[in-house]
Amino acid sequence: MPVNLKGKSFLTLMDFSKDEIYYLLDLAADLKAKKRAGIRGNALQGKNIALLFEKASTRTRCAFTVACIDEGAHPEFLGKNDIHLGGKEDVKDTARVLGRMFDGIEYRGFKQSMVEELAEYAGVPVWNGLTDVDHPTQILADFLTIQENFGRILKGLRLVYCGDGRNNMSNALMIGCAKLGMHYVIASPASLFPEAALLEQCRTIAAASGGSVTVFEDPFEAVKGADAVYTDVWVSMGEEEKKKEREALLRPYQVSMDLMKASGKDETIFLHCLPAVKEQEVTEEVFEAPFSKVFDEAENRMHTIKAVMVATIGNQ
């Protein structure tokens, strides 16, 4: 059955099937090949895209902007001081106004409920550029990077995440891996294990897809057999007051060369969504090693975000 995502919002990979995720990855790979060949597209010609940012951004903002322009769309950046989102004006009112002027809306901010409310009332597709609990566009970039190293089918691969096991990156990776039948492993202090309900939901999905979700406190035990080792900053945006506490708690989970070698595989790759705080969650040696694919990931944000926009509002 052919995949048709026209008009669909992209809020979380929980809303997408295995076939739909692979469709987006295949489309991203095709769009990447065309860009590398110097072929500009027109799939978004005549489209106007609103980019709503409550949080600062490098990769997400640049990826959406360049992706829009590559395919002929006009991106309009709206920062937290530019509009009245959730302040002077209700979210649903802002959504209904923007939905009458734009063909698609990207939101990067704090509450998942905010992006969900935008999608409910806008009348046009809304794309989640990051919230406190999810980061689905990043996961597409991660999966495209893994495909480029291990082949198209991701089922059965073992991805190990070291660090804060209940942050937005770990949540999003867990959902994505469960959907595709991958083996997702979290190495984290017990106090930072994933939220119980989401963990059980993902384990149920993984059981049906042929994957698994496991949690370890010992990072060296967790990384055994890893195809990819992933980490993220220890202190997320908005949690700066917890910096010293997090650094002390997560120090044993730093991705070092010894930890990478503990996978027991020569082909294990290192991934990071960036920005990285080197010598905290990852050593400089690992970050700069040939097996580090972090800048492939960063580039792939653009290609996968382009795929999401083309699939949901494109001139097909």
For this structure, what is the CATH homologous superfamily of the largest domain?
Answer: Aspartate/ornithine carbamoyltransferase
Q: Note the total helix count.
A: 12
CATH class assignment of the largest domain: Alpha Beta
**Strand percentage:** 5-15%
> How many distinct folded domains?
2
Rounded average pLDDT:
96
Q: Please give the share of residues in helix.
A: 40-55%
Rg over CA atoms, rounded to whole Å, is 19 Å
* CATH fold naming of the largest domain: Rossmann fold
User: Oligomeric status of the shown chains?
Assistant: single chain
SSE arrangement, N to C: HEHEHEHEHEHEHEHEHHEHH
By secondary-structure content and strand pairing, the structural class works out as: alpha/beta
Which architecture name of the largest domain does CATH use? 3-Layer(aba) Sandwich
Pfam families: OTCace, OTCace_N
EC number: 2.1.3.3
Domain Aspartate/ornithine carbamoyltransferase Asp/Orn-binding: 155-311
GO biological process, one term: citrulline biosynthetic process
